[in-house]
Amino acid sequence: VSAPVTAGRAGLEAVALTEIQLDALREIGNIGAGNAATALATMTGTPIEMGVPRVSALPIEQIPAELGGEERTVVAIHLHVAGDAPGRMLFLMNVEAAREIATTLLAGMPPGEPGLGGLGELELSALQEVGNVLTGSYLGALSQLTGLRLEPSPPAIGVDMAGALVGAALAEVAEVADVALLIETSLGDAAALGRFLFVPSGDALVIVLGRLGLGG
Amino acid sequence: MPALVAPRAPRVAGSIKVGLGQLSASRDPEEAIAALGLGSCIGLTMHDPVSKVGGMAHVMLPDSTTARSLELPGKYADTAVPALVQALEDLGGRASRFVVHMAGGAQMFSGAGGGVLNIGCRNAVAVRAALQAAGLRLRSADTGGSVGRTLELAVGPGVVTVRSVGGAPVRM
Q1: Tens digit of pLDDT for each residue in A180-212?
Q2: Beta strands in B30-94 (DSSP E)
Q3: N or C end of chain A, less CB within 10 A?
Q4: Quick check: is B121 catalytic?
Q5: To 10 degrees, the CA torsion angle through B94, B58, B122, B160?
Q6: Which candidate from A154, A171, A178 shows the least CB-CB separation from B113?
Q7: Which residues of A98-132 are buried (b: 16+ CB within 10 A; e: fewer)?
């Protein structure tokens, strides 16, 4: 991307992202997901690969189509971020990868009564906890890097069509903004494990860039 | 209310995919119009069995009063209903004959972080209210719960089907 990405309305007014700013935001995705990947590798005892983060400022309604695979079943961990740079965080895991991680973590314990998406109740709790740790490490790294106060809500979990989960998480953002910044980082070889989506809403982008010394 | 200029949904080989906030109408009897992976959103279909015109809106939010832009009338319940009626009428449909279905409006996340506002439920209520305001009767609705849905309308016969993860399409 060599031309500046122009974002409109709702806090992103007159924000044209330069290459330097995009780089900085990619670095946020890198550091956040890197920290999370380390945490996951520690939990499961397996090294985790990570892709190059993708950053885009998009009208919110274009995000699900941009991510693609609206009907594919995924496990989604969703949480609200409050504090200096409010927004939404989503961790989308492929179901097979999620089941493997849950099995590893349960270490021989039974999966529990079947719940969402055919996963056992204990598997779901384990995955919710994975989501908690991963998003916590992502935001912790971001907070350390920028000095911003970021407070994650307890995570919610869903297992269903990717479009339905992403759309539902974005609907709340859409009530207050038209455009959102999407920082996407894939985990696992060729995103086989899953993807992190960080969507700072409203003024959050301006604040983050300002804190990185890249505002205005 | 801005007039609907053209359907914004992409057309691919006989099927139109209606994305978030979009709406689309057609009078091609071979065409299918679909909204994939509806979560808290509502898929709203209208079909005129006489003129064989059909359309769908993918409603994301209940209310346009706080909207900063009405570029996408399909995005809000209160603007989507009149815009979809208009789109069908532009193709020769008559509102008094419309058969209306809707699906979606689920609460997708369980746990503390999900659904404080429950937009899905608010969307369903708002679409019903907008239909009533437009004098349209809802033939059937498959809303609520906590499952994602894909909604499809076959334009010619006006057959509407809904399916969830791992399920077969069910006729509405």
Answers
A1: 778 888 887 766 778 888 887 767 777 877 887
A2: 32-38, 42-48, 53-59
A3: C
A4: no
A5: 60
A6: A154
A7: bbebbbebbeeeebeeebbbebbebbbbbbbbbbb
Q: Which tokens sit at B2? A: 């801005």
Catalytic annotation, pick one of B18, B38, B41, B53: B41
Residues of A whose CB is below 8 A from B61: 171, 174-175
Q: Per the CB < 8 Å rule, is A167 touching B20?
A: yes
CA A16 to chain centre: 23
Lookup: tokens for A174: 């859409």
SS3 B18: coil
Distance from CA of B127 to the nearest CA of A (A): 15
Which helix (H) or strand (E) segment holds residue B151: the answer is: strand B149-154
For residue B113, list chain A residues with Cβ-Cβ distance below 8 A: 78-80, 153-156
Evaluate whether ipTM surpasses 0.90: no
- 3 state SS of A214: coil
Q: Which residue of A has its CA nearest to B148?
A: A164
Q: Find the helix or strand (DSSP H, E) in which A47 lies.
A: none
C-beta atoms of B61 and A171 within 8 A? yes
Model pLDDT for residues A94-148, shown as the tens digit of each residue: 888 888 888 888 888 888 888 887 889 999 988 888 888 888 888 888 888 888 8
What count of other Cβ atoms lies within 10 Å of the Cβ of residue B157?
Answer: 12
Sign of torsion over alpha carbons A129, A132, A136, A139:
positive
